[in-house]
Design a protein that fits this description.
mainly alpha, Fic-like fold, Arc Repressor Mutant, subunit A, two-stranded antiparallel sheet, globular
Length: 339
């Protein structure tokens, strides 16, 4: 894809990103074998409610999953009218989800019109004024001027239609670039997340109903931090790595667990180990900068469960310490479709 006339968003493919793409693909393969249609439909409804709850909660909506379910069933809910309207709009948007094409700008504008109907004046239209991206009270990004938005969005759709990047990566890049451009007066966060789900669902239909949103909500500060880091570096790799971690965690927790004790984090660690690896190499492969979080959430549980072992067990803090899979760890990987 070397056509110079097509815009190319700046991003680097790191080892962590590749490892996560592989792990997600394997987990999705396991999920695809769920053949019980009744269960799949029930799961679909529960997950759609969780998705809508997560996406709107990020934007400050206070309605619970129970209240969203009540609105879905046509019951009256005592809540701020604006928040009820947001839920009704989101339900209407997800009803149309299967009819939209990710590379269609017309569909994106229609989705915005449905999602923001009755909430703002400029629905289904790109903004006419300047906007900043807020995290709480702090402005973390000033979006490009309004008169550049149509061309920037045309470039982004041109890239999406032509790219041969893996959909997991392409959808994350689109999401990041979309938030950077911030094309609408309001609703950019929920639109960016909706469109990433749409791109993923065209790759694998399961993504229409996997509630990545609820995990982003639980890790909201990190979501904004990843956007900010991408902007500072002029490279969306930190955001891609973050989104893939959210997707992997969601897909792994949606999958029927053969070994319930294996958390998504431990599963990711097992998938990243090649032969014997030191702590720094493992952290790098997983794209994790926080040493404490790596030790507590990845390393310790894997050691405790006997899935990995130290190469120098009598000197746990040795600077030469490395880690490798045990037989038990290899069996868990084999059962989970790992290599």
């Amino acid at each position: 894809m070397s056509n110079p006339s097509i815009y190319q968003p700046p991003y680097t493919i790191t080892a962590a990103i590749l490892n996560r793409v592989a792990a997600i693909s394997e987990a999705i393969g396991r999920l695809t074998v769920l053949t019980d249609q009744a269960r799949a439909l029930r799961l679909r409804r529960i997950n759609r409610i969780r998705t809508i709850h997560g996406s709107l909660a990020i934007e400050g909506n206070t309605l619970s999953e129970a209240q969203i379910t009540a609105i879905l069933e046509g019951k009256r809910v005592i809540a701020p009218p604006r928040e009820v309207q947001e839920v009704k709009n989101a339900l209407a948007a997800y009803d149309r989800f299967d009819t939209w094409k990710p590379s269609s700008e017309k569909d994106l504008l229609e989705a915005h019109r449905i999602l923001m109907s009755g909430l703002i004046d400029e629905v289904g239209l790109y903004r006419h004024g300047g906007v900043g991206v807020m995290a709480g009270q702090q402005v973390i990004h000033m979006a490009p001027p309004a008169d550049r938005v149509p061309q920037l969005m045309a470039d982004l759709f041109g890239w999406l239609g032509a790219t041969d990047a893996h959909p997991l990566i392409a959808s994350s890049v689109f999401h990041y670039e979309f938030e950077f451009i911030h094309p609408f007066a309001d609703g950019n966060g929920r639109m960016g997340r909706l469109w990433q789900s749409l791109i993923l669902a065209r790759w694998n239909p399961l993504f229409a109903d996997i509630p990545v949103e609820s995990l982003i909500f639980e890790n909201q500060a990190e979501y904004y931090q990843a956007i900010q880091e991408g902007t500072q570096k002029s490279d969306s790799a930190p955001f891609i790595a973050f989104m893939l971690r959210m997707i992997l965690d969601t897909v792994t927790s949606s999958a029927p667990q053969v070994s319930p004790q294996v958390t998504p984090q431990v599963g990711e660690l097992l998938a990243a180990i090649r032969g014997e690896m030191g702590r720094e190499a493992l952290q790098s492969a997983l794209g994790l900068s926080d040493r404490k979080s790596f030790r507590e959430r990845y390393l310790k549980p894997a050691l405790t469960d006997g899935l990995i072992e130290m190469t120098i067990p009598d000197k746990p803090n040795s600077r030469l310490q490395k880690y490798r899979l045990t037989d038990k760890g290899r069996q868990v990987m084999a059962r989970h479709g790992g290599r």
